[in-house]
Amino acid sequence: MAHITAGVGCSHVPAIGVAMDTQITEQPYWVPVFEGFEASRDWMKKANPDVIFLVYNDHCSAFDASCIPTFALGCAPEFKPADEGWGPRPVPVVKNHQKMASHIAQSLILDEFDITIMNEMEVDHGLTVPLSVMYGDKGPDDEWPALVIPLAVNVVQYPAPTGNRCFNLGRAIRRAIESYEEDLNVVIFGTGGMSHQLQYKRAGLINREWDKQFLDRLTLDPVGLSKTPHVEYLREAGLEGVEMVMWHVMRGALDEEVTEVHRHYHVPASNTAVGHIILENTKDRIAAE
Ligand code: DHB
Ligand code: FE
Asked: How far is the CA of 223 from the centre of ligand 1 (A)?
């Protein structure tokens, strides 16, 4: 059977993608941002997932105000990088595990999570930047080392789903993946955040303390953390900080007991705090030893 062994939480700051694409990662501003992903890239080689279930948000690239699905599952054979105004990122096309994605769609809907099925979709920095930081430089003629099943969550247009809903969706995703017959190693990503506000009077807001307690509680108090109300994200982590609800989907898909194997936190990258964590199911860690 397919099995989820680990979860990755990761910011998606678009400027990180630009820094990689224009090869300026060695500049002093960027060095501390990328240093924190060196251990992650080694970890990815070792974890070597067959499939990444990648929870992310679209930024008006695939969707606009004409259609706002709360949860949209990528069921197309592949997903091309979107043109976000300066041409598509020069990274590989994302290839799906289409059979598993269809199984997940069926399982979720019959489990009463009525997600939208996307049979055509382009993916923006919300999905490609986490892949880039975790796998390192890959050009358009390369392939991502894993197949990727994307789940787009609306956190751009009010109302976003609650953290609790996201956490429970994570549990349902686990049931879906772990009822898929093929023996596959799956890693789930929750992306976006951390604290940041891009607009209006509080633009530039960063809250290190809040970010730190979010990362701490993700391991030890995931259910309590998932009950955080929207207004707290807006107040403490800024308007765009609400992207953090997507991390609860990842956490909900893991065991109650996880081990934090890596953490990286750095300010600033563009207008945001960069946050990153790797959690392994403790049971799977012990079994692998
Ligand atoms: C920035 C951050 C984001 O999460 C995003 O989607 C767009 C821009 C920024 O820091 O500039
Ligand atoms: Fe964003």
From this structure: 27
- Answer whether residue 252 shows pLDDT above 90: yes
CA-proximal residue: ligand 1, atom 5 (nearest) = 13
Residues with CB under 6 A from ligand 1: 12-14, 59, 196, 198, 240, 270-272
Nearest atom in ligand 1 to 193's CA = 4
What confidence tens digit (pLDDT) does each residue in 171-186 have?
999 999 999 999 999 9
Q: What homologous superfamily is domain 3-288 in, according to CATH?
A: LigB-like (3.40.830.10)
Mean pLDDT along residues 3-26:
97
Of 198, 211, 243, 276, the one to substitute when testing ligand 1's pocket (max ligand atoms within 8 A of C-beta) is 198
Catalytic residue list: 125, 196
Cα 188 to Cα 149: distance, rounded to the nearest angstrom: 9
Considering every ligand atom shown, identify the ligand nearest to the alpha carbon of residue 271 and give its number.
1
Render pLDDT for 219-241 as a digit per residue (tens, 0 to 9).
999 999 999 999 999 999 999 99
Please give the model's pTM, rounded to 2 decimal places.
0.98
- Round to whole Å and give the CA distance between 160 and 166: 10
Q: What are the sequence ranges of the domains in the chain?
A: 3-288
The protein residue whose alpha carbon is closest to atom 3 in ligand 1 is: 13
CA 95 – ligand 1 centroid, Å: 25
pLDDT value for 285: 87
For atom 10 of ligand 1, the residue with the nearest CA is 271
pLDDT, mean of residues 134-144: 97
